[in-house]
Amino acid sequence: MSILTIWSRRSTLTLIRNSVESYSRRCFAHKNYDYDLVVIGGGSGGLACAKDAVANGAKVAVLDYVVPTPTLGTKWGIGGTCVNVGCIPKKLMHQAALLGEGIHEAVAYGWKVEGVEKVKPDWSKLVQSVQNHIKSVNWVTRVDLRDKKVEYINALGSFKDANTVIARMKNGTERELTAKNIVIAVGGRPRYPDIPGAVEYGITSDDIFSLSHAPGKTLVVGAGYIGLECAGFLKGLGYEATVMVRSIILRGFDQQMANIVADAMVERNIPFLRNTVPKSVEKTEDGRLLVKYVNTETNEEGSDVYDTVLWAIGRKGLVDDLKLNNAGVVTKGDKIPVNEKEETNVPNIYAVGDIIHGKPELTPVAIHAGRLLSRRIFSGATQLMDYDNVATTVFSPLEYSSVGLSEENAIAKYGEDNIEVYHGYYKPTEYFVPQKSVRYCYVKAVAERSGDQKVLGLHYIGPVAGEVMQGFAAAVKSGLTIKILLNTVGIHPTTAEEFTRLAITKRSGLDPTPASCCS
Ligand code: FAD
Ligand code: NA7
To answer: Do 58 and 37 form a contact (C-beta atoms < 8 A)?
Structure first.
């Protein structure tokens, strides 16, 4: 080996060693801390961040603690909202409801089902099946954390100072943990309205998926996506469900689509009490719940008796237990404002997921942001979380999925003259045989009016909405135009292909219903 080669190898090695050392100095220099990272909150965002950090060589502890619900005392294991009282049990109950419909459809398709008119749900069995799945996910999560060497501490976290977290265990004992970096990923919990009887007699999404008895006739208060989804699956499971709407349906979503979702629910006999707020909940002599309410437009008062009242009036960020003042972290209401790097106002304290102010409250958002944050802290990455064009689905009985801008937001941003909206009703092939209503199956593309017409938003109401939208979301992120969309050959017969057949613009005034649809 020549001297030159040896010298060149040595200098390459020295260069690598120097850069690794300088990088380690930046990230792992403070040997006087117990951990490189402490994460407060073991949900979607916190766990993703913690696991990624360990993979990048950091020493990590995650604190997770669930305060039981006020009346029923419901609590759950590691994994956060999505796994325990959110996306997962919700999707399973939605699926249970769809299967109920499917049994009747099967008969139309030629299945002989004995006593189909007597088919009814077994709530206890459903809850048990759902909870069994959740417990298995809790178990796998704990094993995964142990295998990946993330230290899991079942304790409520609060700040002593900007580098010290106090972990309060279930038995009241406390442990102090110091860390160079701290990530707040505490998420939120459902709100209760400030009216008599709300807490004593009402439940929330935190209780419904493990409720020990069948919910019976249910009033769902709130017309956000959680309210619509809960009312939808309850009705699908055979329980009477009513939605109480304070103002608009699905605030933040495209309002034309939101109203179609609601109309499709009304068609399934889910009544909507519009412009109505609850005033009180009382227990009747026979143990049911009397809800008094008022119409905010007419001031007319009304009341009805229900078996269950479910509050779905929004969620509150869990900042109160954190003692953020001790670390100097500022809040905005019950949320934590962060910059584009998910940094709070305190340099070594970050926040991800539902607790951050002004970003979509969705599991994949929390996960993606948590991972990218870890990579920026521990492996020198620079990629920032992109919160735009995040697709989402409302699992209402007839599902709604969207990506990008609503029609009204596109108009507000670009001006009505600069926006073209393509739309159309359609008939899913599989709906014909069981003669299911196609009245509300509808797609819409919101695009720039000029040039190749960049797509700004896609909206779809129909079966398997999330499956349809996921791929289109990638296309929108890649700069999809109407020209490309209409040049895409469809997959026939699917409902997703309707996006490739959008020929009618709203501006044209042409009828968007296919022949014989909706009659
Ligand atoms: P979380 O998952 O809420 O985790 C935070 C964890 O921190 C919790 O375990 C909490 O108990 C714990 N914690 C709080 N304070 C402390 C503390 N001081 N110390 C220690 N631990 C603490 N999203 C979707 O993408 N798709 C869906 O279909 C969907 N459906 C939903 C349905 C329902 C009914 C609900 C309620 C939510 C749904 N979401 C859905 C939203 C999704 O669940 C959240 O966006 C996601 O869980 C947020 O993750 P996170 O990490 O920010 O917080
Ligand atoms: P949302 O989406 O915040 O919706 C809450 C709904 O509850 C909405 O329709 C509100 O009406 C209504 N609301 C709020 N307060 C009241 C009171 N006091 N009385 C009656 N109705 C009320 O909450 P979700 O629970 O569906 O979802 C929570 C979050 O999880 C959400 O941000 C998602 O991103 C994830 P309004 O439109 O304000 O008049």
So the answer is: yes
Three-class secondary structure of residue 49 per DSSP: helix
The confidence band for 30, taking pLDDT boundaries of 50, 70 and 90, is low
Q: Strand 155-161 and strand 164-169: pairing?
A: antiparallel
Q: DSSP 3-state helix, strand, coil percentages of the chain (rounded to 5)? A: 35, 25, 40
Give the C-alpha distances (Å, rounded to integers) separating 60 from 36, 181, 322, 338: 6, 10, 19, 22
Q: Whose CA is nearest to atom 35 of ligand 1?
A: 86
How distant, in Å, are the alpha carbons of 58, 193, 310 from that of 202? 44, 10, 6
Sheet holding 276-283, edge to edge: 276-283, 289-295, 301-306
What number is the average pLDDT over the span 335-358?
98
Q: What is the mean pLDDT of residues 24-51?
A: 84
| 158 CA: nearest ligand 1 atom | 18
Ligand nearest to the CA of 89: 1
For residue 156, the SS3 value is strand
The amino acid that residue 372 corresponds to is L
In the block, residue with structure tokens 């801390």: 33
Q: Note the pLDDT of residue 117.
A: 86
Give the C-alpha separation, 60 to 45, whole Å: 14
C-alpha distances in Å from residue 102, one per residue of 94, 96, 99: 12, 10, 5
The whole-chain average pLDDT of the chain stands at 94
Q: Which atom from ligand 2 is nearest to the alpha carbon of 313?
A: 7
pLDDT reported for residue 516 = 56
The per-residue pLDDT for 13 is 44
Residue with the nearest Cα to atom 52 of ligand 1? 353
SS3 label, residue 122: coil
For residue 41, the ligand 1 atom closest to its alpha carbon is 7
Per-residue pLDDT averaged across 2-26, rounded? Answer: 45
Residue 25 has pLDDT above 80, yes or no: no
98 has a pLDDT exceeding 80: yes
> Atom 9, ligand 1: which residue's CA is nearest?
80
Test site for ligand 1: of 186, 313, 350, most ligand atoms within 8 A of the Cβ: 186
The DSSP letter of residue 396 is S
Instruction: Output the DSSP codes for 436-496.
Output: ---TT-EEEEEEESSTT-BEEEEEEESTTHHHHHHHHHHHHHTT-BHHHHHHSPPPTT-SG
> Among all ligands shown, which has an atom nearest to the Cα of 243?
2
Write out pLDDT tens, residues 372-422.
Answer: 999 999 999 999 999 999 999 999 999 999 999 999 999 999 999 999 999
Domains delineated in the chain? 198-313 (3.50.50.60), 398-508 (3.30.390.30)
